[in-house]
Write a structure and sequence with these properties.
Layout: E1 2-5, E2 14-20, E3 23-28, H1 39-42, E4 58-61, E5 64-67, H2 70-86, E6 93-97, H3 102-112, H4 126-136, E7 144-146, E8 153-157, H5 167-178, E9 182-186, H6 192-197, E10 200-202, H7 209-222, H8 228-234, E11 239-242, E12 248-252, E13 259-262, E14 265-269, H9 270-281, H10 285-289, H11 293-305, E15 310-312, H12 324-337, E16 347-349, H13 381-389, E17 397-401, H14 405-408, H15 412-421, E18 424-429, E19 441-444, E20 453-457, E21 465-469, H16 482-493, H17 500-511, H18 515-521, E22 523-525, H19 552-556, E23 577-583, H20 598-603, E24 609-612, H21 613-618, E25 626-631, E26 637-645, E27 652-656, E28 698-703
Parallel strand pairs: 6-17, 8-9, 8-15, 9-10, 17-18, 18-19, 23-27, 24-26
Antiparallel strand pairs: 1-2, 2-3, 4-5, 4-19, 7-16, 11-12, 11-14, 13-14, 20-21, 21-22, 23-28, 25-26, 25-28
Helix pairs in contact: 2-16, 3-16, 4-12, 7-9, 7-11, 7-12, 13-15
Length: about 700
């Protein structure tokens, strides 16, 4: 028996693997704080003997990738990366990934000297992560989370945990429901969570979440639904701000809604100015959002009446609009208004510890995406532009680890042109995804069942747990773990001379735990208080140390510092035009490991466009018809099947992303579904987070001839 993390997606649920002859079986580790196994996890053992998996390193010879040995493959990678070091430009190397391997890749990038380790945030959780940092001093989705089992009322905005699945989050939501939790879902379509759990579904117009939340704020302030004591003590709600340029005075008023004159200039509190932002949109609520005033009243009153055991969920896939950062700033501010931070049943700061695998960061240059978006968590589309244009500086080499760029990023045409234009591309993966076919060198990684991993903090838990990952079987082919590959590159480049054991010892020392105890139990919990820590006993990691309603960082970088609704200049204008929305399917992940598994592709073989029944009838379209979809933002055209339903707005269509694989290396996935990223522009972005405004793309739909 071996303790493992399931890596069939990036959630890394705790599992146990057992071996019976040649058969490997996986099951949930019920002693793990994040137990669970879904359909993807159950299909994982198939990877071991998958006929399409990468079985050895590959190197390019002309138009083909041919098998080679590790010595040859690594020498080629080292030669190319050393050239950049010798030129004095390590920043010309970019590295991208999808969560897995982050700590190891942070180490390699820091030792190599490139700042350009850039993830997928701009098409996923970028806006909520930037907003969490600005308002709460928090980080990504795992840094804060609702205490679902103890919540009485939860609002989900565009999030669907039942398909973008973390099994333990679903378990915790169900526990809350058994105790009487009510749920409201704000989403243009009636998603799985809305269908199964919602007491109220609010079918909002895409791209207008900020206006809705500002209206909720306005209603709550006008009806004095806010915790004055919390806001005075732990937020900058009373900060006096100059009205002419929104510069802070660094003075506070006890009257949270003060407006007046100071030093000859009009001033007002941040809280008053926030109310005024709500006042701008509240009279036009129905026109902007399609939402009723009763929906605002319902959400506001349930949040207030159930405080502090009420919460607006912190979101995940949030790259929807050009003001999505303001959406999530507003959401976090509402949580602060009801005083639920770090309270039982509220929005709780995860007490996870952080580990660091390196001592020195040798990067000296600004990250390529931060030139345009200084506050971004990641805007990888800027790497493609740097490859194609050489500005703000060239990207000449790219390392892609366990992620499929064609299935991940917008404007697939640009993605493919950039990959073809690259001087050097090295891919580290288990399966031959779309991006593999562009590579100069492919380094075949062992499956998660064939490799040990370093001890790590557990991701989706509020308590500080550490777990281990042990291989269940030896590698069946000539493959290596990611840590072995990176440590070997470090050694050959003269960057470091560490081993698995030496880095493991560094991790255990930082955590202050015994190796014997950890490995005998599979996971251990560190001592820490769960509730009532931030911002009560410890300051928040914001410039002020408080919840920031007016963001110091936004002001310093020249942005509007208070959440505001940005008027939209794109919208459907005819009966055959729609907002295009997209999301996660239960059966696949965006990377390479699930789409090519026969059982999973059979369960979800393609990604039909979901369309409202009334609009379908007006266009003469019936369920399962083939339709032609044309993007008005990219000009590209696809064909797909259609799914007709009552559970979506009339002006909106929805589809799942990640389909449309064009790599013939993945034989089961090839040709299934269409590439939604062909229809999504890289030019429509949130100027603060740099995230792609995926739901502001307009498409025309007609029955295929």
């Amino acid at each position: 028996m071996a303790f493992l993390r399931c890596y069939m997606c990036k959630n890394a649920c705790g599992i146990i693997a057992t071996v019976e002859g040649k058969t490997v079986r996986v099951a949930p580790n019920k002693n793990h704080p994040q137990p669970g196994i879904c359909g993807r996890g159950a299909a994982g053992p198939y990877l071991l003997t998958h006929p399409d998996r990468l079985k050895s390193p590959l190197i390019r010879e002309g138009d083909s990738l041919v098998p080679t040995d590790w010595e040859t493959a690594l020498n080629e990678v080292v030669k190319r990366l050393k050239e950049l070091l010798d030129e004095g430009h390590p920043e010309y190397l970019a590295i991208t990934f999808h969560d897995y391997g982050k700590e190891l890749l942070e180490r390699f990038a820091a030792l190599y000297g490139t700042p350009n380790l850039i993830g997928h945030d701009s098409v996923c959780h970028g806006p909520r992560t930037v907003a969490a940092r600005l308002v709460l001093g928090a980080e990504g989705p795992r840094s804060i989370d609702p205490d679902y089992p103890n919540s009485k009322f939860v609002v989900f905005i565009g999030r669907n945990p039942l398909e973008g699945i973390v099994p333990d989050i679903v378990r915790r939501i169900e526990e809350g429901r058994r105790k009487g939790m009510k749920i409201a879902v704000v989403d243009p379509r009636k998603s799985a969570i809305a269908q199964r759990y919602a007491d109220r579904w609010i079918p909002i117009k895409p791209g207008t979440d900020t206006a809705f939340l500002l209206s909720v704020i306005y209603y709550m302030i006008k009806n004095r639904m806010y915790d004055e004591d919390f806001l005075r003590r732990y937020s900058n709600a009373g900060l006096l701000v100059h009205e002419d340029d929104l510069s802070p005075t660094n003075e506070y008023s006890d009257d949270l809604l003060y407006e007046g004159v100071k030093g000859g200039r009009r001033v007002a509190t941040a809280f008053y100015l926030l109310m005024k932002e709500g006042e701008k949109v509240y009279p036009r609520l129905k026109m902007i959002t399609g939402v009723d005033y009763d929906d605002v009243k319902y959400v506001a009153e349930n949040l207030w009446d159930n405080r502090p055991t009420a919460v607006i969920d912190d979101g995940w896939h949030t790259s929807f609009s050009n003001d999505s950062t303001y959406t999530w700033m507003a959401a976090f501010i509402i949580n602060a208004m009801i005083g639920n931070l770090d309270k039982k049943g509220g929005l709780v700061f995860a007490k996870r510890v952080r580990i660091k695998l390196y001592d020195e960061n040798r990067a000296k240059t600004k990250r390529v995406d931060k030139v345009r978006y200084p506050l971004t968590e990641a805007a990888f589309q800027e790497v493609y532009r740097a490859i194609l244009t050489g500005t703000p500086y060239p990207i000449k080499a790219l390392m892609v680890v366990g992620t499929n760029l064609d299935g991940r990023d917008p404007n697939s045409d640009m993605v493919r042109r950039a990959l073809q234009a690259l001087d050097f591309l090295v891919v580290i993966d288990i399966m031959p995804s779309d991006v593999t076919q562009y590579a100069n060198v492919v380094l075949a990684e062992s499956t998660y069942l064939e490799r040990d991993e370093l001890p790590l903090p557990v991701g989706w838990t509020l308590e500080p747990w550490i777990d281990v990952h042990q291989k269940a079987v030896d590698p069946l082919y000539d493959t290596k773990p990611l840590w072995w590959i990176l440590f070997e590159l470090e050694r050959r480049l003269g960057l470091a001379n560490d081993t698995f054991e030496s880095v493991e010892s560094k991790v255990l020392q930082q955590l202050g735990i015994s190796k014997e105890d950890l490995y005998s139990r599979g996971c251990v919990r560190l001592n820490a208080e769960l509730y009532g820590v931030y911002p009560y006993k410890k300051e928040l990691n914001t410039p002020s140390g408080k919840v920031e309603i007016s963001s110091n960082l936004l002001y310093e970088y020249g942005y509007y510092p208070i959440p505001t609704y940005i008027e939209k200049n794109v919208a459907p204008r005819d009966v055959d035009e729609f907002y295009l929305t997209s999301g996660h399917t239960l059966y696949h992940t965006q990377d390479s490991v699930t789409f090519d598994i026969p059982t999973l592709i059979k369960l979800a073989p393609d990604n039909p466009i979901t369309i409202n029944r009334k609009r379908a009838e007006a266009l003469g379209i019936k369920d399962n018809d083939e339709v032609e979809v044309v993007s008005l933002t990219t000009g590209r055209k696809v064909r797909c099947r259609v799914k007709v339903t009552d559970d979506i707005r009339e002006d909106t269509v929805f589809t799942y992303f990640g389909f449309g694989r064009h790599s013939r290396g993945e034989k089961f996935a090839y040709g299934h579904g269409f590439d939604v990223n062909l229809l999504i522009s890289d030019q429509l972005t949130d100027p603060i987070s740099g995230s792609v405004a995926q739901s502001l793309n307009i498409v025309k739909v007609k029955k295929a001839s």
